[in-house]
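Explain this fold:

***
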Amino acid sequence: MILYLHGFRSSPQSYKARLMQQEMARRGRIAEWHCPALSPSPAQAMMQAEAILQTAANRAAISIVGSSLGGYYATWLAEKYDCRAVLLNPAVKPPRDLESYVGVTTYYHSDERFEFKPEYVEELRALAVSQITRPVRYFLLAATGDEVLDWREMLAHYPGARQHIIQGSDHGIAEFADYLPEVMAFCDADDASDA
C-alpha cells in the first residue's frame, strides 16, 4: 500500500500525486494506491490517513509518501505505525510556518476556499516528532532550490535517513518524474526492517 499525503493548499490533483498514481496504474497496482483530499484540520487529516492505514492487511508493506506538510504528517504516521516514509521537501516546523496562513485561503488546484483556523496550529504542534527513530525507515528527497521551505532544516531533521539532495529544483520538484524510480524502489523494498 502507498498512502500519498499532499501538502498545504494542495490536493490529489498535484503533479507528484498524479504521476505516482499513473505509475501504480501502469504496474497494475491501483488498488494499493490511496491519496485522500486531506482536511485542513491536521487532527481530521490524521483521522483520514489512519482510517486508510488500518485497512492494510500487511503493515510491513505500507509506504507513506508525504509532500511538504504531508511530509510532516508522514513522519508522525511512520513513527506510530513503524512503516517506511518518503519525504518530498517536507515541512519540519509547520506550526511556525503556517501561523501566518490563519484565515480563509484557496486551494492551488481549484478556486475552492477553506478556512485554516487558529486551533489548527495547535493540532499541528500535537503531531510534532522532535527526533525520528529508526532512520532507515525514511527517505528524504529535498531540493536546495525550494523557495518555500529550507532544505537544511529538512536535512538536520532526518539524520541517518537515506537522503537525496537535489541541487536546484523547486518546492514542487518540477522534475519529479526523474526521481520516481528511486521513490518507487524505496517504497517497494521487500523488508520494512531494511527500508
